[in-house]
Amino acid sequence: MPLLEPKPDALRPAATTGPAPDRVTDRRAAGTPEPLRGDLIALLGADKVLHKISDLVRYASDASPYRFVPQVVVLAEDIDDISTIFSYAHGKGRNIVFRAAGTSLNGQAQGEDILVDVRRHWAGIEVLDDGARARIQPGTTVLRANATLARHGRLLGPDPASAIACTLGGVVANNSSGMTAGITRNAYRTLASLTLVLPSGTIVDTADPDADTELAHAEPALCAGLLALKAEIEADPQLVARIRAKYEIKNTNGYRLDAFLDGATPVQILRGLMVGSEGTLGFIAETVFDTLPLDRHTSSALLFFPTLRAAAAAVPRFNEAGARAVELMDGNTLRASVRVAGVPADWAELPKETTALLVEFRAPDEAMQQAYEEASARVLADLELVAPVPSITNAFTRDPGTIGGYWKARKAFVTAVGGSRPSGTTLITEDFAVPPSRLADACAALLKLQTRHGFDAAVAGHAAHGNLHFLLAFDAAKPADVERYASFMDEFCRSTVERFDGSLKAEHATGRNIAPFLELEWGPRATELMWRVKELIDPHGILAPRVLLDRDPKGHLRGLKTIPEVEALADPCIECGFCEPTCPSEDLTTTPRQRIVLRREMMRQSPESPVNNELLASYGYDAVDTCAGDSTCKLACPVGIDTGAMMKDFRHRRHSPREEWTAAQTARRFKAVERSARLAVAAADRIGDRLLESLTGAARKAVRPDLMPEWLPQIPGAAARTLPPTRKVGAVAVYYPACVNRIFGEPAGYHGPSLPEAVVAVSQRAGRPVWIPSDVTGTCCATIWHSKGYDSGTTVMANRIVEAAWGWTAGGRLPLVVDASSCTLGIAHEVVPYLTPDNRALHAELTVVDSIVWAARELLPHLEILHTIGSAVLHPTCSMRHLGDEEQLREVAEACAREVVVPDDAGCCAFAGDRGMLHKELTESATAKEASEVTSRHFDAHLSANRMCEVGLDHATEGRGYYSALLALERATRPAHAASSGD
Hints:
Elements: H1 36-44, E1 49-50, H2 53-58, E2 72-75, H3 79-92, E3 96-99, E4 114-117, E5 125-128, E6 133-136, H4 142-150, E7 154-155, H5 168-174, H6 187-190, E8 191-197, E9 203-205, H7 211-218, H8 220-234, H9 237-246, H10 259-262, H11 266-274, E10 283-290, E11 292-293, E12 297-305, H12 308-321, E13 325-329, H13 331-336, E14 355-363, H14 366-381, H15 400-411, H16 413-419, E15 426-433, H17 439-452, E16 458-462, E17 467-474, H18 479-499, H19 511-514, H20 518-537, H21 592-604, H22 610-625, H23 632-636, H24 643-654, H25 657-668, H26 670-687, H27 689-702, E18 733-736, H28 739-743, H29 755-765, E19 770-771, H30 783-786, H31 791-808, E20 816-818, H32 821-830, H33 837-844, E21 848-850, H34 851-859, E22 869-874, H35 878-883, H36 886-896, E23 897-901, H37 915-918, H38 920-934, E24 941-944, H39 947-956, E25 962-964, H40 965-973
Parallel strand pairs: 2-4, 3-4, 18-19, 18-20, 20-21, 22-23, 22-24, 24-25
Antiparallel strand pairs: 1-2, 5-6, 6-10, 7-11, 8-9, 8-10, 12-14, 13-14, 13-16, 15-17, 16-17
């Protein structure tokens, strides 16, 4: 074991709530049993089989209220892998469940045997017919697909609230719809074709003109059976009428029996049946969607009503006026939404009965938008709206920022309400639909039902389509609470079906919690047909048992997960998974959700249990060491859970008192440390990369890797020994060159001024001169210590930099311009918790400005652009996302280049100061997709706003040479007579 290796016990919970009834049992501590583990490794390779108990636990939870621990997790890479797994399951009598994003709300992405991850290796989009269609891999998120389609003025029909994380495979498998899709723009109606793998291993491309011929040859019994079912259904007029009626409103409960009416051939029938089949009939390997116009002219309003019934009664009026979306939020939802950044704080004071409608009109042009606004004005004139708090306007707006805020609050329904639930309770999300004309009555009935069973639930939904969602919280560890939930479900399902002829699942698919009620809604005849469909296509029952069809009337009460209390920072997490696509370690180790899920399992266990020991043994590297600490998870989480901050705290817990003391001493003597670091980098230029890699590699074996950086060839040479001269007199800002720019120079092959020289020069040209204090050496933004959890060192440096900045800026009268985005974030925000009360007061008076923002706002208006380049690709840093500075980076770049590209897959590079040198595999994984985009074509410049992020991208792109956008701005504005000083 290397020296100074932290002990796993440092993270062992001091006290747990365990042993909980749903804990992982001791016999499973060894992970995947043999021969299952060995068989799959032999078939697929060790890198595709996850078998540690920590792997199984982190895949056991998703956004649903259920938890089933698989026997093994397989990372399928291609169709050959899928076919191999199918064949193995047939031969060994095992079963399979597919999992992509894990955002499903009903347990359909959970299995008790072989769980197959079909997200990691299944992303990609190909635009067809200038955007009219798109070929999309099943692991691609809706948000990612729409980002590509937007350049063609198109978008997908389905628009679920989980678009940031949910994948197209899941959208099709669940027939997800969302805010505007209704029954005409959902997956069933907009899916042009798909490629599927049947349980037998047969591959079907429904777009292939010869698909039916080939299927008939490969699967004659299947084709005959599908056509026989079609004939049987069509011979029963009453059944045909019932099927058509069921799909006049949103309905995802059971198999799409209308596929037998809409499809003329076996392949066409299969295409329809696969939509909403929840992975029970085959694997969706590829999709082709018909896209829709992206109507960019938008008018929206958030309208407040005195009661839920009053709001529901207004919905038909807006539907008639042509609204694209009419979304409902009740009082509980509105009040819980104050947890979401940007939502007015006074919503917390809204009366419980208050209900809001988010109404939106979308038009292709100004004339149609004006017509919609006139129609909406006529509707508004007849409504009795309320404004119980000052922030309410009850008016339509075209402002994108305001509209975006409305939608952010609406889309956060599940997470915001779930995050405010009582600690330790499980969250159930129900989803049903009634004819829109019955919405007001259904709302009233739902409220009475909730009250009768002791639930103070939250209600929201797609009111335009008669589709409501509501949330229930209860303690799954208490039998009485589970019985209360069961009683509620029985009465709710009967009321929805018998009183309103509604659908028990409108868009979340059947799932484990509604499967026992399938026959209640569809009746015995149709339900029996669905069982026959399953038996025909999957005769051995290898796919997703009990997910869509379940004969157990209490099947929905099986596997309900407990939610033990964890660290306060993470306790509100409902495991929705919205954080996962933004996480740099998503494809390497764990995600924010999984870090919390693992922690919760530790709390279910007895402190010294074998399972806890195994979890802790893996947690150090899988969760703590490979967290970039960038906190972009906080931005993606609707309630702002910062798992990165929790991992930094865990790093702190692992430090010995001596390590904390050493870190504090390093901060106190940082002037000497900084000079030594610059000299070491200068010496490295003469030593050579190969020898340095060998030396640091050997040192990392002796001392734990998290303490010893690894030398990378892309690390630049040393910065100049002195900073450029400036004058304090006449300066309009204080310029603070970050320590990273005082130590490291520009990338290999760069010729021109240093970044400090460029900032000084371009500011002077704009008539906005800056001053560099002579005593900046030895100061730092404190991120070096903060990112590693060294609280003592952070405290020392945080107070030093604030005191120094106060003096430099004449008590805050001048802005402090910082030339590295992470350092801007550090000084502006991250140092605050570590300041003394006096220094907090000083900090409140400072104006900290990132150099990119300084250039965009203060310099560009006064500069003449003299030289431009053809193209530039940007890497917006995660710190810029936190600061909201991404648009300013684009503005600066667009002044310098005629074409500016931000890769669709741009994200955190995970270099995180020096973490990319401590764990280069983290940066390599985090940047793989972005690097693939960048290296697929030539760019004249590769620009960013943080030196170490630029190093990370250089490493990822094989030395493309990333540098600050301010260097490009200096070059673009350099007078001709100065051109000889650099190129």
